[in-house]
From TrEMBL:
Residues 211-233 are annotated as: Disordered. The keyword Zinc applies. This is Metallo-beta-lactamase domain-containing protein. It comes from Knoellia sinensis KCTC 19936. One of its GO terms (molecular function) is metal ion binding. The keyword Zinc applies. Residues 224-233 have a biased composition (Polar residues). Residues 12-212 form the Metallo-beta-lactamase domain. Pfam families: Lactamase_B. Keywords: Hydrolase, Metal-binding, Zinc.
Length: 233
């Protein structure tokens, strides 16, 4: 499976492009701040046509470019509990962040809600761009945080352990850490439940592609991530 990952211009948010192969339809995950030009280049280089944008949650650093990326008919998929965040994600952003965006891009930060939004729910199955994906609702970082799983691996993945599944974890699980819960809509108790009931049951053979930072595996996180220690599924 063709998998292209690159960081956004701010906060190191990982943007992913997934496709069965070059010249096919693709899915874009979490188009954050300042990714539009890079995405154009990636799509042109690999002759890809976006068929959907998947959002792991509604924070501005993960959704800022969703509307220009979606364009006309391309749908944005987000959990129903975070749907409200697409109305105005800049409204809850700090003045410092808005100022940073203005300094970075030379103009006042603006937002236009995507015209085609599809709400997803826990354990829903999606077939997009030839990929069969499962939605796992894992609240805590936000109310509607989700992870997207599929039974395929990125092309060229080499790991010391045997892997057979990929999970795009958003800001639920990072290599050695988890998403913060002190922002509006965050909930520490909900995060603990998500880690126990959603993350821990994932097989050790799962490759984890997080919203920030490097890829990891569930085997590695189960044994080394301090936030998973002491939890039992």
């Amino acid at each position: 499976m063709l998998t292209i990952a690159f960081p956004a211009a701010a906060f190191g948010t990982n943007c992913y492009v997934l496709a069965p192969d070059e010249g096919e339809e693709c899915v874009i995950v979490d188009p954050g701040i300042g990714v539009v030009e890079t995405l154009r280049e990636v799509l042109a280089q690999h002759r890809l046509k976006p068929t959907a944008v998947l959002l792991t949650h509604g924070h501005v650093d993960h959704v800022y470019s969703v509307t220009p990326v979606c364009g006309g008919d391309t749908a944005a998929y987000i959990h129903s509990d975070d749907r409200y965040r697409l109305v105005d994600p800049l409204g809850s952003a700090s003045a410092g962040l808005v100022g940073m965006l203005e300094q970075e891009f030379g103009s006042k930060a603006t937002w236009t809600e995507p015209s085609n939004v599809i709400e997803v729910t826990d354990r829903e199955s999606l077939t997009l761009a030839g990929l069969d994906l499962e939605v796992l609702h894992a609240p805590g970082h936000t109310e509607g945080s989700v992870m997207f799983g599929f039974d395929r691996l990125p092309e060229g993945v080499r790991a010391p352990e045997e892997l057979d599944r990929t999970m795009i974890s958003g800001d639920v699980l990072f290599a050695g850490s988890i998403g913060r819960t002190d922002l509006p809509g965050g909930d520490g108790a909900a995060m603990q439940r998500s880690l126990r009931d959603v993350v821990l049951p994932l097989a050790d053979s799962t490759l984890v592609l997080p919203g920030h930072g490097p890829a990891t595996t569930m085997r590695r996180e189960r044994s080394t991530n301090p936030y998973l220690q002491g939890l039992t599924a």
